Amino acid sequence: MNNLKGQVALVTGANSGIGKAVAMELATQGVKVGINYVSNPEATDQIIHDIKKNGGEAIALQADVSKEDQAQGMFKTLIEAYGTIDILVNNAGLQRDSPIQDMTLAQWQLVIDVNLTGQFLCAREAVKEFLKRGVVAERSKAAGKIICMSSVHEVIPWGGHVNYASSKGGIMLLMKSLAQELSPKKIRVNGIGPGAIQTPINHQAWETPEALEKLLTLIPYQRIGQPEDVAKLAVWLASDDSDYITGTTVFIDGGMTLYPGFSTNG
Ligand code: NAD
Fold first, then answer.
1. For the chain, which terminal residue's Cβ has fewer other Cβ atoms within 10 angstroms, N or C?
2. pTM of whole model > 0.90?
3. What residues are labeled active site?
4. Which of 18, 192, 197 to probe ligand 1 with, by most ligand atoms within 8 A of CB?
5. Burial class of residue 94 (count of CB atoms within 10 Å of its CB; 0-12, 13-18, 19+)
6. Distance from the CA of 92 to the center of ligand 1, in angstroms?
7. Measured from the CB, is residue 35 less than 6 Å from ligand 1?
8. CA 95, CA 11: separation in Å to the nearest integer?
């Protein structure tokens, strides 16, 4: 066990895939968790039921993270319920893929709004509370921790997905700039850069044996990642065990960022 017991976290996009696994793992560590979701309340109820069954604490927080009033309302509700916030996991994200010549402004804008602006809006609200409360030594060495779910596509260009790759590149500099600005206030900000993790967002890439075989040519470690792989990293980045780490993206990708195409050529 690490030292997270009694802390409060908000995980955005927490009723599916990576966010769900992160929320469940934080709850297992004794963290009170706000489960943000935008749709599918049944999935959210099931997660909260499972967390409570295991002795954990969680509440549902419906909000579209790209809408300022909804993001602010979500933090207000969380802080009213649990008193404060210690950990923000900025995870909500989506894809709207298209070749550039066919990409609509709506496709571009939605991905930037949810993936990037949503992270800004939630980080801003979390930071207000972190600054107001400051460090409470018995809770954590830091006044607050923000984890930004990025992607290998913060560094790997991705044709046909320029909106998504641009949002993730933006998250990298949002994360680093926040870390630079907030380190003197004892607020840590880090990124997680997943490679291919088996979730609904990328089901076309793994749901047939042919697709999976093609995907594995990009992964030197020769397996697709699981949401729980990312959840364990998120817990560590949220804990004082990583207290001297800020402004860094930790890639969790089975080697996808190692340019596997160069392993026998080039
Ligand atoms: P997912 O589709 O299973 O989960 C995404 C979650 O975000 C869902 O709960 C969805 O409802 C939520 N969401 C979407 N729009 C929202 C909004 N406006 N407000 C609040 N919530 C919203 O996909 P996932 O793979 O779990 O993705 C989670 C994060 O991980 C995303 O940021 C994604 O870009 C990132 N990521 C995933 C992979 C992967 O291989 N699965 C790789 C790299 C990065």
1. C
2. yes
3. 164
4. 18
5. middle
6. 5
7. no
8. 19
